[in-house]
Amino acid sequence: MKTFKHGGGGGDMLYGLSTMYHLGGGKLHLRFDGTRKFYDPLLKSQPYIQEVSNHTTHQDHWINFPVDYNLDLFRGQPFNGGYTLVECHMMAMKIKFDLTEPWLFVDPKHVADIVINDTGKIRWEGVTVDWSCVKGFEDRCIFIGLKGEHTNFVRDRGYNVKYYPIKNALDFAQIIKGSKLYLGNQSTGLAIAEGLKHPRVADIYKGLSKQYPKGKNGHYELSEDLIRRYLNE
């Protein structure tokens, strides 16, 4: 069985799974700042991840932890060169694959037609999405994320979009898959939508942008026409 390790944040790790998938999968060793109970159900549901092992080891030991593929090497790649996190993981392993192919696989769960996560000024605030386009579609939307993110979204964007609590990352992915469109800035939700290659609009960060959507149904600007197209109106 091939072995992989990733010590990045939850979003970084999810993008790294694209490379693990194209290398044939195997056992995944993790040491990251996410919540194990949140991510494990999604990871263990993937057909190419045979086992997940979570570590709390010291960084010095982690650096020397032996595996076949060290996905942490993505950090040495040129983010500022316009490459996405998927491309940086791919280049670190010196392989090439089709960036338009999905690497996350879940069954759909319909809760709402439009799923939103926007962390706003808390972190990675985007500048490419005109959120005023959501006006008139609020009853078709739900907001998934931290309660504070939802409070800020309602206050700052002016939309009383319903808050929907989720169980874990697998639940999040299934709800995205069951929707018609995902809207969000750089976050775990966007990483999931990108992994699914689900119709998505990425609100790109004004600084170091690492999560440009690749492939069809991926956008970084929002319009009323785009929303109506995906809602089949």
How would you summarize this macromolecular structure in one to three sentences?
By secondary structure, the chain is α/β, with parallel strands linked by helices. It has two domains: about 5-90, no CATH class; about 115-230, 3-Layer(aba) Sandwich (Rossmann fold), CATH 3.40.50. It has helices spanning about 10-20, 35-45, 60-65, 85-90, 145-155, 170-175, 190-195, 225-230, and strands at about 5, 25-30, 50-55, 70, 115, 140-145, 160-165, 180-185, 200-205, 220.
What do you see in this structure?
With 233 residues, the chain is α/β, with parallel strands linked by helices. The protein folds into two domains: 3-92, no CATH class; 114-230, Rossmann fold (3-Layer(aba) Sandwich), CATH 3.40.50. The chain is built from eight helices and ten strands. The protein has helices at residues 10-22, 36-44, 59-63, 85-92, 147-157, 169-177, 188-196, 224-230; strands spanning 3-6, 26-30, 49-54, 69-70, 114-117, 141-143, 162-163, 181-185, 200-203, 218-219. It has a six-stranded parallel sheet with strand order 7-6-5-8-9-10, sandwiched between helices. The longest helix is centred in the first third of the chain and has 13 residues, at 10-22.
